[in-house]
């Protein structure tokens, strides 16, 4: 302490330093307490129960996914195929007789004709003259036969009177019989010529639709000229669809089908009328012939697709969103034991308004992920939400 003239004692620096130190310590403690209070207030609140808190935190972190057990549905088995349209009975029409020069063509492609209707005529002037000559020969033969019969009648009346011997009578009878035979020969020859003349005209072998024409008036035709017309018997058409060996094995004659020509939205109902008895050894495919009623939109030689209904199966059906695809093929995710995601390879079948049928890979009782499968991984744990597919 220092003594001042005023009689007071003054504090030295030694007494002031402890007081300042206490002040700073108190201020530091206050700051620390404020920081601890702020940290406690900013921490998230915990549930009352520690076990409940742990379970709730884990449940909130699991991704929810919608799952469904598809069960089994009755699905029409549909087999698709493509092929060419053709006449069910394709009839080539050519020259049946000796041929000659075509004088007229009476029909055009697309025209309906009846059985035996003349499609084209061939010049028959020579053949007509031959027939007229044969008719004249018949008249001569009949006149000879008539004279021979008169000679026989006269000889028979005279033989009893002794004017003619029996040998002469027998000669006249023989002459008469020969004359009658010549008449029959001439008549048969004329009939043959008339039949040949009738075959000069090119006729439809059956009722149907004219498809093509490859003859013109003035053309010389013969039996070696090939087909001059092509016809579809009764106008009936067919689709010759190529199918795999496995698909053909499951089909039967009479199975219904729908045919759609290329470039058309119109479909035609038909049915299988013939299944190929052989399979191509290279392509392992066979031909199924589907009969279709006539329609002007069906043109032989055109291309068409067919949906053939080969019976009903009981299969699971899933929406498109449930099916995933990668390099290994189609698959779905199912939620298995402990709610863990499992990958399941599948084989898909028919696609309809109800969804995609699953031919193999599922029994229908599994919990299948209906959507968001692209964001899941096998082995991942999820929170399944069950609903009807």
Automatic annotation (TrEMBL):
One Pfam family hit: BSH_CzcB
GO molecular function annotation: efflux transmembrane transporter activity
Name of the protein described by the UniProt record: Efflux RND transporter periplasmic adaptor subunit
Keyword Transmembrane helix: yes
CC per GO annotation: efflux pump complex
Organism of derivation: Sphingomonas panacisoli
Highest taxon listed in the record's lineage: Bacteria
Domain CzcB-like barrel-sandwich hybrid stretches: 99-225
Membrane-spanning segments: 24-42
Region of interest (Disordered), ranges: 47-70
Sorted UniProt keywords: Membrane, Transmembrane, Transmembrane helix
Family (UniProt): Belongs to the membrane fusion protein (MFP) (TC 8.A.1) family.
Annotated CusB-like beta-barrel domain residues: 239-308
Coiled coil: none
Every Multidrug resistance protein MdtA-like C-terminal permuted SH3 domain range: 317-371
């Amino acid at each position: 302490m220092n003594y001042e003239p005023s009689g007071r004692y003054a504090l030295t620096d030694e007494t002031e330093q402890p007081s300042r130190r206490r002040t700073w310590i108190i201020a530091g403690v206050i700051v620390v307490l404020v920081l601890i209070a702020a940290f406690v207030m900013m921490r998230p609140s915990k549930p009352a129960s520690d076990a409940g808190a742990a379970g709730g935190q884990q449940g909130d972190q699991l991704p929810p996914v919608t799952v469904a057990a598809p069960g089994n549905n009755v699905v029409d088995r549909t087999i698709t195929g493509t092929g060419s349209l053709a006449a069910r009975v394709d009839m080539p029409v050519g020259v049946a007789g000796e041929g000659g020069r075509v004088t007229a063509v009476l029909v055009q492609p697309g025209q309906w004709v009846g059985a035996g209707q003349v499609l084209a005529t061939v010049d028959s002037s020579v053949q007509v003259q031959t027939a007229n000559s044969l008719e004249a020969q018949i008249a001569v033969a009949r006149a000879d036969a008539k004279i021979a019969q008169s000679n026989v009648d006269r000889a028979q009346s005279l033989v009893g009177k002794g004017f003619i011997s029996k040998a002469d009578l027998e000669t006249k009878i023989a002459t008469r019989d020969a004359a009658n035979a010549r008449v029959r020969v001439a008549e048969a020859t004329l009939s043959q010529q008339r039949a040949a003349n009738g075959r000069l005209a090119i006729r439809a072998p059956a009722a149907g639709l004219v498809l093509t024409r490859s003859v013109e008036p003035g053309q010389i035709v013969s039996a070696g000229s090939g087909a001059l017309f092509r016809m579809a018997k009764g106008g009936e058409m067919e689709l010759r669809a190529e199918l795999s060996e496995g698909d053909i094995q499951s089909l039967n004659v009479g199975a219904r089908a729908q045919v759609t020509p290329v470039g058309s939205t119109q479909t035609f109902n038909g049915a299988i009328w013939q299944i190929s008895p052989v399979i191509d050894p290279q392509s392992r495919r066979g031909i199924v012939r589907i009969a279709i009623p006539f329609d002007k939109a069906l043109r032989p030689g055109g291309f068409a697709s067919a949906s053939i209904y080969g019976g009903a199966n009981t299969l699971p059906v899933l929406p498109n969103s449930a099916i995933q695809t990668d390099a290994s093929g189609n698959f779905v995710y199912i939620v298995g034991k402990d709610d863990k995601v499992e990958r399941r390879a599948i084989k898909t079948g028919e696609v309809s308004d109800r969804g995609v049928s699953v031919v193999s890979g599922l029994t229908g009782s599994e919990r299948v992920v209906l959507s968001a499968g692209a964001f899941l991984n096998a082995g991942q744990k999820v929170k399944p939400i069950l609903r009807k597919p």
